[in-house]
Every structure is written in C-alpha cells, then in structure tokens.
Design brief:
The complex is a heterodimer of chains A (81) and B (417). Chain A is of the alpha+beta class. Chain A is built from 2 helices and 5 strands, in the order βαβββαβ. Chain A has a 3-stranded antiparallel sheet, covered by helices on one side. The longest helix of chain A has 10 residues, at 51-60. Chain B is α/β, with parallel strands linked by helices and 417 residues long. Helices cover 39% and strands 13% of the residues of chain B. Chain B is built from 14 helices and 12 strands. Chain B has helices at residues 32-39, 50-58, 70-81, 105-112, 114-128, 142-150, 172-181, 208-225, 258-264, 318-331, 338-355, 362-374, 382-396, 398-405, and strands at residues 91-96, 132-137, 159-162, 203-207, 236-242, 248-253, 256-257, 272-277, 283-285, 291-292, 301-302, 308-313. In chain B, α2 runs antiparallel to α3 (70-81), α2 packs across α8 (208-225) and α10 (318-331) packs antiparallel against α11 (338-355). The chains are: A alpha+beta (81), B alpha/beta (417). The A-B interface holds A 6-14, 29-33, 35, 40-42, 67, 69 and B 185-188, 190, 336-340, 342-343, 346, 373-379. The complex binds iron/sulfur cluster (SF4) (2 copies). One iron/sulfur cluster binds next to α1 of chain A.
C-alpha cells in the first residue's frame, strides 16, 4: 500500500526541518518552504527508503504540519509490530 | 420524461420553461405566489435519494467554478451518512458568496429568484437525508432571501450566514469555516467535506445557481434539462457579462459559442481584443471559434468557471489588465500558506515589470519558473487559479510581450514606459 506525506500548508512555516530529513524527497523553494522533487506536491509519494525518515519528520515538525496518509502506519509513528 | 423522473404530479399540467429562458422565468423579484404559478409546486415529500440518479441522468455540473458532476457530491454525502447507524446527519450549504469582482450572477439570482434556490436547497437536503441547512451569501442578498424564507414555513429552518466580501470567501472550505468560526479562511482538506465538514458532519456545499437548476430538474426531470445545451454540457448556465457595455446577466445554453454570446450581449467581435472567461482564476481567449463548455479540447473549448465573461475592448493592453488582476489576487491570498503568501506577490511583481515594458527577456522565463514552483502548493485552489490566468495571458498576449520587450506597445492606450 502506498503511503504519502501530506503537507498542511496552512501550518507549515518553512523552517525546513523536513527537507533536511528527506533530502531525496523534498527541496526548498525561494522562501524556504518544502517542494516535492517530483509528483504531487501536497500529497507526496514516499518510497520505501524514505519510510522511516518520513515518520521521523512527522514527529519532529515543529508546526505539526506533516502527516503520513495511507499504508499501515497511522498518522505518524512507526507501524506497530 | 417518465413519471418517476419528476416530483411534479403529471395532472397539474404546469408547462416547463422553454428554451434557455429558465431560471428567471418567474420575472423580477418573484414572490412565492408567482414562483409557484410559473414553475408549479414542488412536492418535497416525494423527493428522496432517487433525486441523485435523476441528477446523474441530467448531467448537471456545479455552477460555482469547479464544474464537478453535482450528483457525485450528493452521492458522496449520502454515502457518508449511511456509513454507520450513529453517523451524524449531513449539513447542506447553499453557497452564494461571490467574492469574484467580475461575478454578479449569483447575487442577481438570489435577488430575482430566491425561491428556486430555496427549493433546490430543500430538495438536495431531502436527497441526502440532511438535517441542517445554511445559505451563505453576501449581506446585500439578505433582504430578498429573508423575505423569501418568511413566505414559506418549510424554509424556516434555513440559517443565513453572511459571507465577507473577500475573493477567497466562496471557496467551499472557507464557507464551512465561516459558518463554524466566523472566519472565511480555507482549511487543509486532508479529509473530504463530504466525510467531515461542518462540526465533523458530512457536508454538502452547492453553489446557489446549481441549487436553482436542481429545483427545476426535481420538477421536470433530466430529459427536460438536457433539451438545451450539448451532450457533454447540457442545460443552461448563467454568465456575468462585463466589459465596455453595461454589466448584464445572461442565461445561455451549455456549449454556447463565444461569438454567439458576444452577439447576444450586443458587442461587436471586431471591437474585442480578448475575453477573460471563468474569472480571475480563468483564462484569456481571443474570440475565434471557442465554445463555453465544461469539456472539450483547450484549443476549442474554454471552461466557464464561475460564469464570468469579461470583454477587453480592442486597443487595451491585456498584460496591464492581467498585472492589475494578479496584484489584486496576491493581496487576496489568505496568507496562510507560504508558497501562496510569497509566490503570488513575486509573480505579480515580475508580471508588472513585463506589463510596464521593462526590456528584459528573462522576465518571461522567471514568471514561468515561479509558476512551476508555486503550482499545487496551497490549501486551496488560489495559487493554481492565479497561475492559470497568468499562463493564459503569456500565451494570448504573446504579440504584446514581444512588442513590450522591443520597447513599443501594440495598444492605443498604453502608458509610456
Ligand atoms: S518541518 Fe514542518 S514546518 Fe518545517 S518546513 Fe517542514 S513541514 Fe514546514
Ligand atoms: S492557498 Fe493561499 S488563499 Fe488558499 S488557503 Fe493558502 S494562503 Fe489562503
């Protein structure tokens, strides 16, 4: 099941912590806000390699602007064993 | 038309409006008596979930801008309703907020034919098993709507909520937010409104003109609705015509040609530089052989959006006009989302430099780069709508851009650089 990283733009303040955790997935725009490197830019497909880092970003985003949607994981955190 | 398709008892013998003169058939400021006299009574007790399949057969699409198939919205809302025995009953919101400065067809409809909108709201609510009804509209529409509600007991439960006069106030989640919190700001839509909108209830937001069409489809059925327009764009729609002449609201058939609309508006196509169709989030076209339609190739069809039809007279600079509009749109960002809050003013700045003849060929590339950067990154459609307008201007006014970059201007009224 594919998982996506959803950005709530109304919350994000563009300090860019997520872009450091997910350099393969996210770049930064002229003003510091995260930009998906490819595909949908608000619901960003997460590859297997980025799964853990995406969960980490959800936990660490200071504005609670991120959420992992779909797949077995809930809204943040690792899937329970 | 089969009997099942319509809520109007066949024996009553009311004649359905003919041709494209439908929504205003009861005349100006129609009270309830003249409304019923013109359209026949609507037996709400006979309206239920079957209305959704009638709407599907009718092909009605939303008249507020996005042109989604209306039946799908109702079906999604009804489905959330049936998701569990404890599922809350849906909320139905009639959206008459018209923040778009060039749009006035919804205000006109609420002033002239409020009872059709109320019929549609009551019928849609019946179809989805709704329990709370709202009409969200600008303060100017209140007197006519209040009078209409007071004329009929069945409408007493409809709550009127004032829409502020801001561009973004009519966005569906902004409407929900305005009703819930008094602040008309869009919110992040990770969940659909049909699942969880106002107070976490399934929420159906329909434009007031869409509701008025529903009121007639519930009476006369899908076949009647399709008797004008084309197979892919059936029925009629209201458009707000503005430009060199007086503002006017026209009711036109689906898939009508731009030339025909200009003719009905008594505007000579030879005096037209371009037409902005769909509004500030719409698209510039040069009249040629375009059709106003919800579908079709971009080379021949232009989406009606919220029904705006703004004529730029020959001799006026479309780049200057677009730069002014984008300045306005940048100022109307709800300033919640970074890419919109910073990206729109940046694009407005570059577009103004092109419009006011800075001779730097890199400006067009920069504008295209900014458009690509900002696209798809906001909680609402505002950035994407603005980008669509700008890219249509770059396309349609390419001769003007070349002239500007050469330090001249193709228009008669251009300001000196
Ligand atoms: S960490 Fe959160 S607030 Fe910071 S840029 Fe990423 S999404 Fe925005
Ligand atoms: S995209 Fe712009 S207008 Fe829409 S909610 Fe975000 S900041 Fe507001």
């Amino acid at each position: 099941m594919s998982r996506t990283l959803h950005i709530d733009w109304t919350k994000c303040d563009g300090r860019g912590l997520c872009t450091e955790l997910l350099p393969g997935l996210l770049g930064r725009d002229d003003w510091g806000y995260p930009v998906a490197r490819r595909g949908d830019r608000t619901d960003i497909a997460i590859g297997r390699d980025d799964a853990d880092a995406a969960d980490e970003a959800v936990k660490l985003c200071p504005r609670l602007a991120l959420r992992v949607v779909g797949g077995s994981g809930g809204s943040g955190g690792r899937p329970a064993r | 038309m089969t009997f099942k398709e319509t809520a109007l008892p066949e024996s009553t013998g009311w004649r359905a409006p003919f041709g494209t003169f439908r929504l205003f058939a009861a005349g100006t400021h129609a009270g309830f008596a003249r409304h019923v006299d013109t359209f026949g009574p609507l037996d709400l007790d006979s309206v239920g979930p079957e209305l959704i399949s009638v709407l599907k057969a009718s092909g009605l699409t939303g008249r507020g801008g996005a042109a989604f198939a209306s039946w799908r919205k109702l079906a999604a809302t009804a489905q959330s309703r049936s998701a569990g025995i404890l599922a809350p009953r849906p909320v139905v919101i009639g959206n008459g907020a018209e923040g778009e400065p060039l749009s006035f067809k919804d205000k006109t409809l609420l002033a002239e034919a409020p009872h059709l909108v109320i019929d549609g709201l009551l019928a849609a609510s019946r179809a989805v098993g709704g329990s709370q009804l709202y009409l969200y509209a600008g303060a100017a529409s209140f007197p006519a709507v209040e009078r209409a509600i007071s004329e009929r007991p069945a409408a007493r439960g409809i709550r009127l909520v004032e829409a502020p006069d801001r561009f973004i106030a009519g966005e569906a989640s902004a409407a929900v937010n305005a009703i819930a919190t008094g602040s008309a700001l869009p919110f992040d839509k990770r969940r659909r409104l049909s699942e969880s909108g106002l107070k976490n209830r399934p929420t159906l937001v329909l434009n007031v003109e869409t509701l008025a069409h529903i009121a007639l489809i519930a009476r006369y059925g899908a076949v009647w609705f399709r008797s004008v327009g084309s197979a892919v764009d059936p029925g009629t729609r209201l458009i707000s015509v503005s430009g060199p002449g007086p503002d006017q609201v026209l009711e036109v058939a689906g898939n009508e040609s731009l030339g025909e609309i200009l003719y009905s508006s008594q505007i000579d196509a030879a005096d037209v530089a371009a037409v902005l169709v769909g509004g500030y989030h719409g698209r510039w076209v040069k009249p040629h052989d375009y059709k106003l339609s919800v579908s079709g190739p971009a080379s021949h069809a232009v989406r009606p959006g919220a029904g705006v039809f703004h004529v730029l007279p020959a001799g006026y600079c479309g780049l200057e006009t677009t730069a002014r509009i984008v300045d306005y749109l940048a100022g109307e960002s709800a300033r919640q989302c970074g890419p919109c809050m910073f990206g729109l003013p940046a694009m407005a700045g570059v577009l103004n430099r092109i419009a006011y003849r800075e001779r730097d060929p890199r400006l067009v590339k920069e504008l295209e780069r900014l458009g690509k950067l900002v696209a798809g990154r906001g909680a609402c459609h505002h950035p994407d709508g603005t980008i669509q307008l700008i890219s249509s201007a770059l396309d349609v006014f390419s001769d003007e851009i070349k002239a500007h970059l050469a330090g001249t201007c193709t228009t008669v009224n251009g300001r000196a650089a």
